[in-house]
Amino acid sequence: MYCAFGHYSAAGTPQPSMAGTSKLVRVVGGKEQASVQARALDPGELVRALAAAEPWAERALLQAEMPHVERLLTRMLGFCAELDDLTQEVFIRAFARITELREPESLRAWLSSIAVFVAREAIRRKRRRRWLVFLPAETRPEQPAAAASFEARAALRVFYEVLDGFSADERIAFTLRFVEGLELTEVADVCQVSLATIKRRLKRASDEFYLRGRARAELVEWFEEGSRWRRIES
Predict the structure, then answer these.
(1) Which of 99, 147, 180, 201 has the fewest beta carbons closer than 10 A?
(2) pLDDT digit string (tens) for 168-187?
(3) Which domains are seen in the chain, by residue range?
């Protein structure tokens, strides 16, 4: 099989932009922000308070987990014009379904699973309606010049273009494993499938990326250098 080595973030992996602040972000702040931060966020207490629709708990969850959710969505989708709305959708679903969470200590993993489902829906909508688009270069989140050269940004754009040819499930597994850097067991958990299923998806996606990626001039160095991708016999 083909296995990824290294993460693209050092060369300009897309980062969530805070320029378009969502309605949910706006509720985090004001006079109560300090008191929310000061609370000892015991997972059990937080989940019980969320189930009771306590405003402080909703603020606390947004403050603690919104960056994580935005990062996951960005890793899975690339430069996404609807990132703000999709992030909001994750938390709307979480607030509505919080009573389904049986293990408060698994709150972040549970949120990640919701983000996976939201991302999968977005990918499938894109294929039907071209709903999801890459942002024009001038509106993309800025990266430090030293960390993201013109060539690196071009490679990143092509990387996500290649992923557009994957099935939604394989793309999500691939990006969670090789871009976000989750362990295999973590990928299986957030995707709510078996470890064997994730391994099969990753094998297919890795093989497909190797074939498609080598055909794109912007990604040639990824394979020639061997630092990002190398061939491993399965």
Answers:
(1) 99
(2) 999 999 999 988 889 999 99
(3) 1-12+143-234 (1.10.10.10), 17-140 (1.10.1740.10)
